[in-house]
Amino acid sequence: MTLLRTVVFLAGIVTALSPCLLPAAAETRSEEIQRPLSPETFLGRSKGRSYRMNITRSETVNYHYEGVLGPDKVGLKGLWSAKPDYIEAESDNSYLDMNFLATHAYLVLGGSSNSSLEISLDGKPYGKVQVDAEKKYEIVSTSYERHQLSIKVPKGIKAYVFTFGDDTD
Q: Which residues contact 83 (CB under 8 A, 6 or more apart)?
């Protein structure tokens, strides 16, 4: 009887101490490594800090830049007006370009147009997106690496912010 009590007593101690002695299940599996992504990129005048050029206050300006965009930089071509929270295409030949690192690029858009956005990725046609409400649209889904995105934006479309994702999210 004494041996049985000792075994039961020791079993109780081991059970009580097991969380301290054994690593938790979450700790035993390897932590998922998150790959770096381009940061959330605001496009309005008040928070837009990633432009290759200076953005002019509220008036319509014909923007242009030369060469390739640097990492996480935004470029505009054509007629745009910059409001505090968004930019708005003022012609059907307005381009919004972005150099990004991710597998998914999203863009919050609003406004209206009968024409679709025409999307190019790394210099090749990628697809079209029709803006039908103010919401977040998936612009591209591709391989994880740095990409050059170019979007032909029709007049009347507003662009607020780029966000990015990865398949490991």
A: 44, 45, 58, 158
3-class secondary-structure state, position 102: strand
Residue in the block written with tokens 């912010």? 161
Q: What is the CATH number of domain 41-165?
A: 2.60.120.260
Rounded to two decimals, the pTM is: 0.79
Dihedrals φ, ψ of 29, to 5°? -85, 150
Q: What percent of the chain has pLDDT over 90?
A: 68
- Measured CA to CA, the distance from residue 89 to residue 14 in angstroms comes to 69
Closest CA to 42 of 89, 98, 121: 98
d(CA 9, CA 17): 12
pLDDT band at 169 (very low <50, low <70, confident <90, very high): low
